[in-house]
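Minimal example, chain plus nicotinamide-adenine-dinucleotide.
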Amino acid sequence: MTQRVLVTGAAGFIGSSLCERLIAEGHTVVGIDNFFRGSRSHLSTIESHPEFSFYEGDVTSLKEIQACAEVTKGFDLVHHLAAINGTKWFHETPRHVMETNIIGTLRTLEAAESWGARYVLASSPEAFGDTKTMPLLEEQSSMFPSAHSHQRFSYGASKYLDEVAVQHAVRCGVDARIVRPFNAYGPRMLGDAYGQVIGMMFQSVLDEVPILIHNGGGQTRCFSYIEDIVEGFFLAGELDEAVDDSVTLSGRCFNIGTSEEITMNDLAQHILAVSSKEGLGTVHTEGHPGDSSRRVPDCEAAMTGLGWSPKVGLKDGLRRMWDHLR
Ligand SMILES: NC(=O)c1ccc[n+]([C@@H]2O[C@H](COP(=O)([O-])OP(=O)(O)OC[C@H]3O[C@@H](n4cnc5c(N)ncnc54)[C@H](O)[C@@H]3O)[C@@H](O)[C@H]2O)c1
């Protein structure tokens, strides 16, 4: 059934691809973004589509969120992706990170409640803080270190509080679901100093400079191609009921990722190989304080509840991203 969908953070890396997917599925989509980190060019494939409209606005303002509903007279579904992401920001502007992420979630939840809309929150594995237990389960407990030494968890703790706010809304009757993407990568990913690791490594290759590796490079991550991430968001918003026999999707948390774990050193070698730039090599540097050494998802809940599974392996995804970049 055609739905009226609001996507916040629509001009961002994941948000823009999600908007494309929702339009392709026949939904009416309104996107909102303040271009803090996103770009209008990300919307070029859909901006003139009759079922897509875009509103430049701030998700910390209820008035600006409500303005998105002027034409559609409300929404059936809100995908809330607007947030400040990118490790450098967590340390440099923690107050802005917390304000955007927490207030933005509270305001969009309030709006969703007023429209009677289903709500999907983009949370993060960072909401688990410094938890060492792996893999990270759907309902894993979070653990945060003292805030005295660094500000990294301005982001992770804000995502944790976002989840608390969503669970409270569920108790108040909102149909809300939580998606935690684990290290998405693909076209449109930022590669500047405020970007994320795969984007930054490919940027080094494009700039013909050695790939910078932080903190020794022995730390691991599990990367997920953008199409798999978008599929997770799409299913979390689209399905009325779980595909298994669980009672409801509301209040559930879905880790969306792969178990294909790789060190940063090996990742750099893959990226040099896929771009045939082995000669550039790597250089090592100190990283940001507080970076976790390992982050592995347990995606059982997404597989059984949403019928989701990852389709694109890392080598294939890196190849696709490189084909796009050049
Ligand atoms: N990319 C990942 O691997 C990853 C992992 C975990 C969680 N997430 C979460 O998924 C969501 C999307 O991530 P992304 O990688 O696409 O990030 P992104 O930075 O590309 O997208 C976020 C968008 O939100 C916009 N935005 C920021 N503040 C805003 C405000 N006040 N009002 C309106 N728009 C605002 C930005 O301009 C940007 O376009 C975020 O909530 C992020 O925390 C992403």
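The chain has a mean pLDDT of 95. The pocket of nicotinamide-adenine-dinucleotide is lined by residues 9, 11-15, 32-38, 58-60, 81-85, 100, 104, 122, 124, 181, 183-184 (CB under 6 Å).
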